[in-house]
Amino acid sequence: MACSPAGEPNRWVCEQVLHHVWRAGGADATAPERLAELAARLQPQRQLDEDAARERLRANTAEALACGVFGVPTCEVDGRLFWGFDALPMLRQQLAGNLPLPEDEWERAGDWPVGVQRQTDS
Question: DSSP E strands: which ranges in 1-122?
């Protein structure tokens, strides 16, 4: 089963989706034949065009925005968000217990003004 009993995707599912979008050598992630291949590989438990699936996506998106997530991939560790593949070395340092920045620099980074605020379609 690709998801938990509660319907949450596991690591393998997330890896497959991220690979589909960002590691396909520039191929269109929304191409019907590619989406069909991804669906066949993942074997989702519900149809993606069902109202329940759409509502789940909206709720998850709203929750991510409320947590300060701006884009994907985003990883949260110890209350810190690491966004994008270029942040992976910093994430690795954090996971190893070596703060990638001194604490005061992390705090100052949160004081920068927000340049773009994403909103959900309500």
Answer: 74-77, 80-83
Write the single-letter amino acid at 114.
V
Separation of alpha carbons 55 and 86, rounded Å: 31
- How are beta strands 80-83 and 74-77 bridged, if at all? antiparallel
Task: For residue 61, give Cα distances in angstroms to 3, 54, 57, 70.
Answer: 18, 11, 6, 10
DSSP 27-51: --TT-HHHHHHHHHHH--SS-TTSH
Residue whose token pair is 């810190």: 80
Reference 90, options 108, 106, 67, 104; nearest CA is 106
Tokens in use for 11? 């690591």
Q: Calculate Rg over the CA atoms of the chain.
A: 17
pLDDT in tens, 90-101: 999 999 998 888
Contact 88, 82 (CB under 8 A): yes
Q: What separation, in Å, do the N-terminal and C-terminal C-alpha atoms of the chain show?
A: 32
Question: Considering the entire predicted model, what is its pTM?
Answer: 0.63
Amino acid at the residue 24 = A
